[in-house]
Structure formats: C-alpha cells, structure tokens
Amino acid sequence: MKPMLTVIGLMSGTSLDGVDAAIIHTDGERIAGFGPDISLPYTAALRQRARGILDHAPTLSPDDPELKAVEYAITRRHIDAVRQLQALVPDIDLIGFHGQTILHAPQRRQTWQIGDAGLLSRATGVAVIHDFRSADVAAGGEGAPLVPWFHAALLHDVPGPVAVLNIGGVANVTFIDADNTIHACDTGPGNALLDDWAMRHTGTACDVDGGLARAGTVNRAIVEQLLADPYFARPAPKSLDRQSFATALDQVAACTPADGAATLAAFTIEAVRRTPLPARPARWYVCGGGRHNPVLMQGLQAALGAPVEAVDRLGWNGDALEAQCFGFLAARSARGLPLSAPTITGGPDGLSGGRLTCAGLMPVPSWIHATSGRRS
Ligand SMILES: Nc1ncnc2c1ncn2[C@@H]1O[C@H](COP(=O)(O)OP(=O)(O)OP(=O)(O)O)[C@@H](O)[C@H]1O
Ligand SMILES: CC(=O)N[C@H]1[C@@H]2OC[C@@H](O2)[C@@H](O)[C@@H]1O[C@H](C)C(=O)O
C-alpha cells in the first residue's frame, strides 16, 4: 500500500455553478495536507442546459441525446480543471470524480450522477474513482450525505458535540458527539430555492450577500406551511433531491421579491434548527456558498443558541472543502474503507463504495484494494 496518495477531488454541486477541483494528500484516514484548488464555473448556457436535464431527469432515458451532450460538456469542464491542477502538481495518483447529480431518490433506490469517468481517465492519464453513492443506495442507505467521514477526519482534535453545516443547493449537517460518533443528514433547503427566486425576480444567479432577503419581512405562516412537509418529521438518516421543495416557490409566489427571499431564507434556517440531532452542538461551523450570505449566517446565529462560525475560522478552505472531500473518499474507496455508516446514511456498517475506471491499457495501481469496485 502506498502510504499517502496525492488525489484530485472533483465536485460539481447541486447549485450547478461549476466544478470545484482540489488536491489532497491522504491515505483515506489521515490528511497529510492540501495542494492547490480551483473553481471553473459553468457557462450560463451550460448551467441552463444542465438545469433542463435536472428538471426532466425522472423521465429521461440514459441514452437521451441532450443528456449525453450535457454529460460530455460537463466532463470536458472537469478535464480542464484536472489539467490545470496537473500543470501545478504533475504527479497525481488518483482522481475522485463525484459527477453532477441530476436525480436523487433513494426511496426508489435511485441516485444519478452524470459524467464520463472513462473519458476523464483517458484525457488525464489518471485512474478515476466515481459513482460514490450507488453502493450505499443499493444496500438501502440514503447515499447522502457522504462528507461526514471527511469532516470527522478534519475535526479530530476539536472536542464534540460539534456540528458542521454545509449550505449548498441543499443543506446537510455532520454532527460529532462527545463520544466521537458521527451522525448526519440533509437538513432541508440550502440556497437552491433562494437562487431560483433571485433568478426569477432579479435575473441574478443568487441573492448576492442576502441583499434581497435583508430588505424583506419573513412570512411566518408560510414558513410553518413549508415546514409541514413530512420530511421534517422524519428521523435521520435522511437525504434530499435538489428539487425536493421546488413547490415552495409557488407558496411564496404572492410575496414581494424581498419578502419571498426573506421567507425562503427563514425556511432554510428554521429547517436547520429543527433537524433531529442526538444532542445540542456546542458550536456550529458552516461551509458551502451559503456561508457568504450574511442573512443566513445571522439568522442561524440567532436561531441555534450556540456560536455559529464559518469553517474558515478553523483554518479550513470553505470553498474547496467538498472537492477535497471527494479526493479523500476516493482514497478511502481505493483502500476499501467505508464511505458511509448506519448513523450517516442508514446504509450497512463497513460498506465501501465508488467504482474504479482506468482507461485503456493503464495498469490498475498496486495500492488499489481488491474490493474497490470494478474496472471499466
Ligand atoms: N455572496 C453570496 N451571497 C449569497 N449567496 C451566495 C454568495 N456566494 C455564494 N452563494 C450561494 O452559494 C451557492 C453555491 O454554493 P456551493 O458551491 O456550496 O453549492 P454546491 O456545492 O453546488 O451545492 P451542494 O453542496 O448542495 O452540492 C450559490 O448558488 C449561492 O446561492
Ligand atoms: C445526491 C447529492 O448529490 N446530494 C448532495 C446535495 O448537496 C448537499 C446535500 O445534497 C448532500 O447530501 C450531497 O452532497 C454532499 C457533498 C455530501 O454527499 O455530503
């Protein structure tokens, strides 16, 4: 076994804003350090086409020509990101490629991330681990969130109970108890509803710095209606699709743009507050793009009754964290280590995941664990 791997992690999240790529030095348990990271945005046209695919994913054939074209364009963007990092750090052992989630329905044993791992491996000359969620979903787990093992590795010297909250398109929490048990789930909406609302009313991709929400008044009755969704009464583990609460936009449709934004921001915040956790976190650390929105951060601080800070305060890189995570998970997969757990996704104890793709005649690296998925 090679002791420490140099891995590029790639994440393109539910916000559909682009590709984050980051280098991590890890054996899948310890983190020896991080290398450079970059973000390559999707063009507005690609973002719109990806959104079209996401909106129609439940009825799409895997051979749909537009799906294939968008998958190709997204893969090319990932190849560009990897090549830029390879120009800085040529000796890369492995790539962890999340792909673009277009559908997540674990109750139907379905989770769908698009992206061509074979093309990525051929174009970069590096072995790729991808399809991180399917094994857990096939075994009855939620398949998400998968970031908790990484948060736990980073938090090893931070005493629990502590929570890490990721506010991406969807929001998810990792909770580490005083005895180091890891619990997790998706809390509810993150920025996705706010993004869609801002696009509808201002033509901008998000409510920049919470400007719209700050000018509005929260409609508490609508927030309560939104929180009546059965998802919030379910115990963890549980996970969401980007579109799980898409009808919320209809429920705020009669609000002014500012009041609608304020109400959707309050929905995100209140969903976090009501998330069933085994104990109250002594501190909350926030990552994901939502930590740049002061309305969300101040609202969380007021609602949670404990200090709320951006993860950057811990010295973490809050923008590269998810990409680093999929590098870390690729190293775990290469070693056959678990990616999930009963208290994280509800999947079986000890289950690894991910699939290995080594394109063409590339030899399978000797340090790849025999159970780390099939070669394609
Ligand atoms: N200055 C800002 N003001 C308000 N919102 C912001 C700002 N910067 C980023 N965001 C929000 O952060 C989002 C991007 O967050 P992030 O990159 O964490 O999402 P993601 O990784 O795609 O999602 P997920 O974690 O659900 O997969 C944007 O869509 C936007 O809503
Ligand atoms: C199916 C899917 O892609 N889920 C994402 C999404 O974005 C946030 C939240 O919903 C989380 O569950 C997950 O991503 C993070 C990286 C995870 O798996 O931990």
Short description:
This protein is of the alpha/beta class and 376 residues long. The chain is 34% helix and 22% strand.
Topology readout:
Layout (H helix, E strand, L loop, with lengths): L4 E8 L5 E9 L4 E11 L2 H13 L8 H24 L5 E12 L4 E5 L2 H8 L2 E4 L3 H5 L9 H7 L7 E6 L2 E7 L5 E8 L2 H11 L8 H4 L5 H8 L20 H4 L5 H17 L9 E5 L6 H11 L3 E3 L10 H14 L20 E3 L19
Parallel strand pairs: 1-4, 4-6, 7-10, 10-11
Antiparallel strand pairs: 1-2, 2-3, 4-5, 6-12, 7-8, 8-9
Helix pairs in contact: 1-2, 2-3, 6-10, 8-10, 10-11
Explained architecture:
- It catalyses: 1,6-anhydro-N-acetyl-beta-muramate + ATP + H2O = N-acetyl-D-muramate 6-phosphate + ADP + H(+).
- It comes from Komagataeibacter europaeus.
- This protein has 376 residues and is an alpha/beta fold.
- It has 2 domains: 5-143 and 344-357, ATPase, nucleotide binding domain (Nucleotidyltransferase, domain 5), CATH 3.30.420; 148-314, ATPase, nucleotide binding domain (Nucleotidyltransferase, domain 5, 2-Layer Sandwich).
- It is built from 12 helices and 12 strands.
- Strands 1, 2, 3, 4, 5, 6 and 12 form a 7-stranded mixed β-sheet that branches. The chain has a 5-stranded mixed β-sheet with strand order 9-8-7-10-11, with helices on both faces.
- A hairpin with a 2-residue loop joins strand 7 and strand 8 (170-176).
- Helix 6 (192-202) runs antiparallel to helix 10 (257-273) and helix 8 packs across helix 10.
- Ligand AH0 binds next to strand 4 and strand 8.
